[in-house]
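Researcher: Here's my situation. A collaborator sent me these components and asked whether they could plausibly form a single complex. I don't have experimental data yet, so a predicted model of the whole assembly would be a useful starting point for our discussion.
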Amino acid sequence: MLHLVNKSPYSSSSLDSCLKFATKGAPIILFEDAIYGAMAGTSLESKMIEVMKDHPVYAIKEDLMARGVNNIIPGVREIDYTGFVELVEQHRPCTWS
Amino acid sequence: MKFGVLVQEGPYHHQSSDSAYQFVKAAMDKGHEIVGVFFYHDGVINSTKLTDPQQDDRHIQKRWSEIAEKGVDLVVCIAAAKRRGINDDVLAPGFRISGLGQLTEMAIKADRFVSFGA
C-alpha cells in the first residue's frame, strides 16, 4: 500500500498515524505541507532517517519548490506528478489527512 | 489503468483542489482513464461558475471544466452542494449533481481510487 500524507508533521499527527499502520517496505509520499517533513536540519530529521530504513519516502518536487525547501534529508526521493501517478500504478493508495 | 479521484476540499483553501487537478492531468497524460472525479464536502465549491479569481490567478473551476471537455465525469454530491447553495443554476459546464451512489460506482469501477483533502 502507498501512503499519502499531505499535512505538515509539525501541525498534524497524520504522518505519525500513517507510520503506525504502514507495513515494512510500504512507500510514503509527502506532498503539500507534508513536505516540511522532508526538510533537513530540523527536529524531525533523525526520525525521518529511521523511517527511511523501513519505507521509501518520496516528496513532490513542485511542493518543495513552492515552499522554498531545497535542503532535503538525504534519501528522500524527489518526484513530480508523473512519478506520483507511477507509484499509484504500482500500489493501492491510502490518504492520511 | 482506471483511476477514480475524490476531492474533499474547496478551491483556494489549502491545496487539495490543485493537487487533485495535477494528479488527474498527469494520469491522463500517461494514458490512464479517469472514471470520474467526485466532489464531496467543501469540494463541491469547485463546481460553481460564480468563481471569478483575478486574471493573474489560476481559475480552478475552469481547469476542471476543461478536464470535463476531455470526457471526464465530474460529479458533485447533492447533499453537500445543497448545504452550500450550489444547484444547477450556478453549476459550471462539465459538472453534474448526483448522489453518493456515484462515489461507490466510481470506487468499484476504478483500479485505483485516490482521495485528496479534508
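Model: Some features of this prediction you could bring to your collaborator: The beta strands of chain B are 2-7, 33-39, 74-77, 95-98, 112-116. The first strand of chain B starts at residue 2 and ends at 7.
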